[in-house]
């Protein structure tokens, strides 16, 4: 877990003092913590002690314009590998189960794209009340992880389940959560392609394209966060592999195809790579030199294998095969034609000419896409690539939920 980070939400409860120790225990294991202290939490521990232990600014539940300009609540919610709520109060559990966003902590919990681990702490009768039972069941169904509560004597003098798990038990649960078990796609194998391919002309020159790989990396990240065993076959890009994702680096389209076939069978395949359609017919072994007569070498191209179409017609075809269609005109018509020709189940289509702000989609942070499935076409608003990934994975999860029931 070294090098990972946790966003710790400290709710209001006497057990909040144990969260200070939790921060230390995590730090001992090389895990960085950033904290949100709810208004009620601040009645039990001070922002100063949390800041001293985390070595970071503490975010409070009161909306502060300074906080928002330094780091917006959405960004804060995505800034860590895991969100831990300790103590998780009946209030915080109820808000998340009901989809309420009335303060920084609940807004962050709703907005996060990371897993959530809750360490509940409350009075026995509260924990056993039908409404808290409902919240806990809803949250568990939504993929929220729980540690505790433990049984024992409580600060209020009653006995039973309600004591917050001990810091070391929470640390063990954090370690488990980093392994991304129990997500909605737990037990599924996912294959994602991303980035451009490079097709060599000689040892120093190649043909490539402007794909940054950002969309595909975000999809692999979101699939892994949902629990899928995820392999990312990536052309040359300069972004780091997401955690929990196995990265296979390739250069050419032919390498990419071989790497993908080696990963079959897979349940889900999302082909977001911008694979070069053609490659130079021969890649020279040594650098092509200018000749004395200034003759310009002719470039002859041959067709590359189509990875999506090959997987679409493969005897080990993935159960759900998603292709991308980057178009500059007639986006939907071309995408539907591609879906049929390549035997893809779904197509994510986008216009790559430029978005509203004039930023290029290739290399940019945002994307505006249409999702074309077997039965429907949806147009999504312009959003961050990570959000496109999250929504796509939600659809994938839903698809498997429906087809398995
Ligand atoms: O035909 P076009 O390149 O627009 O198709 C895009 C879709 O096909 C993407 O999903 C892309 O990853 C995939 N593709 C592929 N192999 C190719 C060309 C495209 O897998 N050689």
Strand adjacency order, main sheet: 13-12-9-14-17-18-20-21
CATH class of the largest domain, please? Answer: Alpha Beta
Major beta-sheet overview? 8 strands, mixed
What ligands can be seen in this structure?
cytidine-5'-monophosphate
Low-confidence stretches: none
Q: In the residues, how many domains can be counted?
A: 2
Give a verbal description of the structure.
It is a single chain. 34% of the residues lie in helices and 24% in strands. The chain is α/β, with parallel strands linked by helices. β17, α13 and β18 form a beta-alpha-beta unit. The strands form six sheets. Strands 13-12-9-14-17-18-20-21 form an eight-stranded mixed sheet, sandwiched between helices. It has a six-stranded parallel sheet with strand order 3-2-1-4-5-6, sandwiched between helices. Strands 7-8 form a two-stranded antiparallel ribbon. The longest helix is centred in the C-terminal third of the chain and has 20 residues. The protein has two domains: 174 residues, Rossmann fold (3-Layer(aba) Sandwich); 216 residues, CoaB-like (Rossmann fold), CATH 3.40.50.10300. The mean pLDDT is 91. It binds cytidine-5'-monophosphate. Cytidine-5'-monophosphate binds next to α12 and β17.
